[in-house]
Amino acid sequence: MLRIAGGRFKGRLIKSVPGDSTRPPLSRVRQALGNILAPVLAGADILDLYAGTGSYSIELLSRGAKSAVLVDNSPVAVKTMRENIQSLGIENLCTVIQGDALETLSAMVRQNRVFDVIVVAPPYFSGLDASTMSRLGDHPPLKPGGVVVLQQHRHETPVLKTGSLEALRTYKYGETRLTLYMAHDKE
């Protein structure tokens, strides 16, 4: 079980994905991300790629985000996040998609969907961090002032700039590294 760190659901418990195929972010990492993003969360639309338990989206919704699209390929993860969303009564704020994150990202771009915050938390050492950031850098579906957050293991190669996305700041929490990006006009 995971505990929500802040906001209106602070202290509430949500389920972890059974087995060891999904590693949810530690409470201190989720809490830190909520604190870092606090200035942009009020009314924010979230895209959560590789969502796992849904804990990042739930944390951000708890702190004032307006809606979240959660994407994961694993049927077990999708079942878990749906149960977590239902247990908190926030089904009306969430869209859960079982599917490939890169394909879903491309579909969002084709549909002209834009977000205030995009969270990218792929499995460590899978190469999906670089491929997802490359796809995002080509056509980031961000609203003006929107941010992308990439979660990586501290030993993975940092992505400093890709396409129109440029790293603003990096935070380290034990084995986890969070990097925030904003879109800049290509030169």
Task: Report the principal-axis shape.
Answer: globular
What is the helix fraction of residues, given as a range? 25-40%
**Ends: how far apart?**
46 Å
Low-confidence stretches: none
Major β-sheet profile: 8 strands, mixed
Class by SSE composition: alpha/beta
What is the domain total for the residues? 1
What's the total count of β strands? 10
Give a summary of the structure in a few sentences.
This protein is an alpha/beta fold and 187 residues long. It has helices at 27-41, 55-62, 75-88, 101-110, 128-138; strands spanning 2-3, 13-14, 45-49, 67-72, 94-98, 115-120, 142-153, 161-162, 165-173, 176-183.
Give a written overview of the molecule.
The protein has 187 residues and is of the alpha/beta class. The chain has one domain: 3-Layer(aba) Sandwich (Rossmann fold), CATH 3.40.50. It is built from five helices and ten strands; from the N terminus they run E-E-H-E-H-E-H-E-H-E-H-E-E-E-E. The protein has helices at 27-41, 55-62, 75-88, 101-110, 128-138, and strands at 2-3, 13-14, 45-49, 67-72, 94-98, 115-120, 142-153, 161-162, 165-173, 176-183. The strands form two sheets. It has an eight-stranded mixed beta sheet, with helices on both faces. It has a two-stranded antiparallel ribbon with strand order 1-2. The longest helix is centred in the N-terminal third of the chain and has 15 residues, at 27-41.
